Amino acid sequence: MTIQHRNPRHEFNLIWNLGGLTPWGLTKRVLRDALEDDLTQRASSLAFDLLLAFFPLLVFLLAIFGLFASRSVELRIDLLSYFADFLPPEAFQLLSHTIDELAENASKGNLTISILGVLWFASGGISSMISGLHWAYRVKDNRSWIKVRVVAIGMTLFIAVLIFSALSLVLVGGFLINWAAGTLHLNSVMIAIWKVLQWPIAWLFVVCSYALIYSYGPNAERRHWYWITPGSTFGALLWLASSVGFRVYLNFSNRYTAIYGSLGAVVILTVWLYVTGLTFLVGGEIDANIERASDETQKKLNLGILKENK
After folding, report:
1. How many whole angstroms separate alpha carbon 200 and alpha carbon 219?
2. Residue 5: burial class (beta carbons within 10 Å; 0-12, 13-18, 19+)
3. Are 36 and 288 in contact (CB under 8 A)?
4. How many CA atoms lie within 13 A of 304 on its CB side?
5. What pLDDT digit, counting tens, does each position of 7-29 carry?
6. What is the CA radius of gyration of the chain?
7. Distances in whole angstroms, Cα of residue 184 to Cα of each of 180, 196, 198
8. pTM of the model
9. CB count, 10 Å around CB of 286?
10. Distance, CA of 59 to CA of 122 (rounded, Å)
């Protein structure tokens, strides 16, 4: 894909103007490409890879938390509290039990020694997400397997830093709000407002993570990276709505445990990862279509300028 270098501000405006498309026109293009690219099938394979990478990523995060021993427990609790909001109860119980086992059985030294191996496996999910985007962006990945994995490792590190930063912000904010509540005698409404404000932090983390992979994952000449794009914004909103909807569905009709028994929690976690993968791919299709439409609009503008100069 050939992309002309443009002024970042003009480029940003063009992106958020949907590349010159109307919302309905963009929707039709995304739906058409989603069917052509068979997103549901790709989301299934992506969910499997994400499941394999999910727990190594948790081990890697625990290793980072271990560097701040005095706050590692609080960070782990904050991480679990976020997952408790988004994951179905059965999947969260499985996750919570696994994290407790990892924290108890793996010493700080062992985690540090194996951190490179864990990071390698944790980046496998990011590598699969990058592979899925190539269909959306209509590009072939002619990079070596090692180069793709190095890119995936770099993104995994950056996302881990985002998670750690978000949790640290919540942790510091929690201490401040507790101190203010005790010292300034704030009422329960102020505390409730702070707890509500934690949700946008989690959503922004998902948006920035999506935008990062959309920008630097596919093997294409990239534009400037923006923290928020239409695709990452919609993909994160769709992920949030789908996660909440899945939780509500399981509260009223949970047949997974009855059918799969003790494996029900694993199946539920896999389905949630499938939803995550599908929303990620939908967001990628949105940004890819806006990018192609932006190129078409820019070419028309350039052609008009050439005609005027003649």
Report:
1. 31
2. exposed
3. no
4. 6
5. 667 677 778 888 788 889 899 99
6. 22
7. 5, 20, 21
8. 0.78
9. 27
10. 9
Write the single-letter amino acid at 253.
S
| 152 and 126 Cβ atoms separated by less than 8 Å | yes
Locate 228 and state its tokens.
């928020």
Residues 65-105 pLDDT 10s: 776 655 667 777 777 777 777 777 778 888 888 887 777 66
Q: How far, in Å, are 90, 128, 281, 282 from residue 286 at the CA level?
A: 32, 19, 9, 6
Q: Helix, strand or coil for residue 104?
A: helix
And the tokens for 109?
A: 């030294």
Length of the chain: 310
Question: The tokens of 169 are what?
Answer: 């912000």
Q: How far apart are CA 7 and CA 11, in angstroms?
A: 6
Q: CA-to-CA distance for 175 and 3, rounded, in angstroms?
A: 47
Q: In sequence order, what DSSP letters do the residues of 144-209 get, joined into one string?
A: -HHHHHHHHHHHHHHHHHHHHHHHHHHHHHHHHHHHHHHHS---HHHHHHHHHHHHHHHHHHHHHH
In the chain, where the domains are located: 8-300
Please tell me the chain's helix, strand, coil percentages from 3-state DSSP, rounded to the nearest 5.
Answer: 85, 0, 15
First to last CA, the chain: 28
CA 79/CA 121 separation, integer angstroms: 20
Taking only the tens place, the pLDDT of each residue in 121-175 is 778 888 888 888 888 888 887 888 888 888 888 888 888 777 777 766 666 666 6
Do residues 56 and 156 lie in contact, with contact meaning Cβ atoms separated by under 8 Å? Answer: no
